[in-house]
């Protein structure tokens, strides 16, 4: 175990001192971007920006049955709206593309063969019926339901006979039993015995698609990802991922898991709630930087204004990137103070009013709102100068841009 940690530390030093920081946001297009997803994307983006690194968008669509129409496009639009700019991704391309997993199937096939050849993976012919029976038996006897790794021990002859019979099969990875430790950038050392809790995982399905775990590892390696910052729900999978890196004889990236985001009353923030979708905030007049600041306030990684005796205000992306320190992300769940969102929105309007460039954009938006409200009237007061004067004059009572139309 010590050797393992020593090796890990060497990897850390290698990346932090010599290699380019390359991080990725890897959503599955199974729904639209929500607050939790935006937090992961934002922290990756700020980490890249603060280290002169690259932010990569990779779409993980290996589970074709769960794809939602339009999600891929919408995720990219939502990131763009939030001011999270992509250095490499499906639309913009890049040296290590394609950036959509379903377009990389040849690579996974090639790589799964490497593991079959070095015998760290094997073909599994167990039927769904057998797996169901195993599950039922485990439930009946109060055991952890897991695959019993039977096909790991097929003789060469058995294996050949099944292949000759063209029996449908998947490919599983051989888990190494025992405790494994890795250093989490946010949680510190994490020790876990994955084989105690899971059977050998499927890495390549009978439909010719890899599973998430395999594709994710292969892509992070080939896309030269230096740091993986992702939600804490993936932490239990990390020792398994590191085992796959070892099986390939690759160095793993550095992992950091971002704690859960909760509602301010401590209840779970669910992505099924339409009201945490980014689209919902946008449609309701919330400004991107207000939302980003709400997230950074909730998720840690920054010194708090109040603790520094400063008046709360909105920070731009550049300011956030300058202040961001991954070591300041706490390992306990972050509470999203949604009740402060309007206050943040007003701070953001105030910030825009004081920035010449942003004020111009704001004035144009308000002019549009007014024209939409009074389409058949020529309004002399809709002139740029009047609108800007009006915005400055009434700003104290305004939380949304949309409120301006009520003031005319
Ligand atoms: N596709 C995974 C997700 O939807 C990505 C997990 C990871 O970042 O490794 O969250």
From TrEMBL:
<keyword id="KW-0648">Protein biosynthesis</keyword>
<comment type="similarity">
    <text>Belongs to the class-I aminoacyl-tRNA synthetase family. Glutamate--tRNA ligase type 1 subfamily.</text>
</comment>
<keyword id="KW-0067">ATP-binding</keyword>
<dbReference type="GO" id="GO:0050561">
    <property type="term" value="F:glutamate-tRNA(Gln) ligase activity"/>
</dbReference>
<dbReference type="InterPro" id="IPR020058">
    <property type="entry name" value="Glu/Gln-tRNA-synth_Ib_cat-dom"/>
</dbReference>
<dbReference type="GO" id="GO:0006424">
    <property type="term" value="P:glutamyl-tRNA aminoacylation"/>
</dbReference>
<keyword id="KW-0030">Aminoacyl-tRNA synthetase</keyword>
<dbReference type="GO" id="GO:0004818">
    <property type="term" value="F:glutamate-tRNA ligase activity"/>
</dbReference>
<dbReference type="InterPro" id="IPR000924">
    <property type="entry name" value="Glu/Gln-tRNA-synth"/>
</dbReference>
<dbReference type="GO" id="GO:0008270">
    <property type="term" value="F:zinc ion binding"/>
</dbReference>
<feature type="domain" description="Glutamyl/glutaminyl-tRNA synthetase class Ib catalytic">
    <location>
        <begin position="20"/>
        <end position="333"/>
    </location>
</feature>
<dbReference type="InterPro" id="IPR049940">
    <property type="entry name" value="GluQ/Sye"/>
</dbReference>
<dbReference type="InterPro" id="IPR014729">
    <property type="entry name" value="Rossmann-like_a/b/a_fold"/>
</dbReference>
<dbReference type="InterPro" id="IPR001412">
    <property type="entry name" value="aa-tRNA-synth_I_CS"/>
</dbReference>
<keyword id="KW-0436">Ligase</keyword>
<dbReference type="InterPro" id="IPR033910">
    <property type="entry name" value="GluRS_core"/>
</dbReference>
<dbReference type="GO" id="GO:0005739">
    <property type="term" value="C:mitochondrion"/>
</dbReference>
<dbReference type="InterPro" id="IPR004527">
    <property type="entry name" value="Glu-tRNA-ligase_bac/mito"/>
</dbReference>
<dbReference type="GO" id="GO:0005524">
    <property type="term" value="F:ATP binding"/>
</dbReference>
<keyword id="KW-0547">Nucleotide-binding</keyword>
<protein>
    <recommendedName>
        <fullName>Nondiscriminating glutamyl-tRNA synthetase EARS2, mitochondrial</fullName>
        <ecNumber>6.1.1.17</ecNumber>
        <ecNumber>6.1.1.24</ecNumber>
    </recommendedName>
</protein>
<dbReference type="Pfam" id="PF00749">
    <property type="entry name" value="tRNA-synt_1c"/>
</dbReference>
């Amino acid at each position: 175990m010590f050797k393992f940690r020593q090796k890990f530390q060497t990897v850390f030093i290698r990346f932090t001192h010599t290699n380019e920081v390359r991080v990725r946001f890897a959503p599955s297009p199974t729904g639209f971007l929500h607050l939790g997803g935006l937090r992961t994307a934002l922290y990756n983006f700020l980490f890249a920006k603060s280290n002169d690194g690259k932010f990569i968008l990779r779409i993980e669509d290996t589970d074709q049955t769960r794809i939602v129409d339009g999600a891929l496009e919408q995720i990219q639009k939502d990131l763009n709206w939030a001011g999270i700019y992509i250095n490499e991704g499906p639309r913009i391309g890049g040296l290590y593309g394609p950036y959509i997993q379903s377009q990389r199937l040849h690579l996974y096939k090639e790589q799964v063969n490497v593991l079959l050849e070095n015998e760290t993976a094997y073909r599994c012919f167990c039927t769904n019926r057998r797996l169901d029976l195993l599950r039922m038996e485990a439930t009946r006897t109060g055991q952890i339901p897991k695959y019993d790794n039977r096909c790991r021990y097929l003789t060469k002859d058995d294996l050949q006979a099944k292949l000759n019979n063209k029996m449908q099969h998947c490919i599983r990875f051989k888990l190494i039993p025992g405790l494994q430790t890795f250093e989490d950038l946010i949680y510190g050392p994490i020790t876990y015995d994955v084989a105690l809790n899971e059977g050998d995982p499927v890495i390549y399905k009978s439909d010719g698609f890899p599973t998430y775990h395999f594709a994710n590892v292969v892509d992070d390696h080939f896309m030269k990802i230096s740091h993986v910052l992702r939600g804490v729900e993936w932490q239990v999978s990390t020792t398994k991922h590191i085992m796959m890196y070892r099986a390939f004889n690759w160095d793993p990236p550095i992992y950091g898991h971002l704690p859960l985001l909760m509602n301010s009353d401590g209840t779970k923030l669910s992505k099924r709630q339409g009201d945490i979708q980014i689209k919902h905030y946008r449609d309701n007049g919330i400004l991107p930087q207000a939302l980003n600041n709400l997230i950074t306030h909730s998720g840690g990684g920054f010194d708090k204004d109040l603790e520094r005796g400063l008046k709360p205000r909105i920070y731009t992306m550049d300011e956030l990137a300058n202040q961001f320190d991954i070591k300041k992300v706490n390992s306990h769940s972050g509470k999203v103070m949604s009740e402060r969102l309007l206050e943040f929105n007003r701070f953001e309007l105030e910030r825009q009013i004081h920035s010449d460039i942003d004020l111009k954009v704001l004035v144009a938006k308000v002019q549009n709102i007014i024209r939409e409200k009074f389409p058949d009237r020529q309004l002399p007061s809709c002139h740029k100068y009047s609108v800007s004067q009006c915005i400055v004059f009434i700003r104290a009572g305004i939380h949304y841009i949309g409120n301006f139309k009520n003031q005319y």
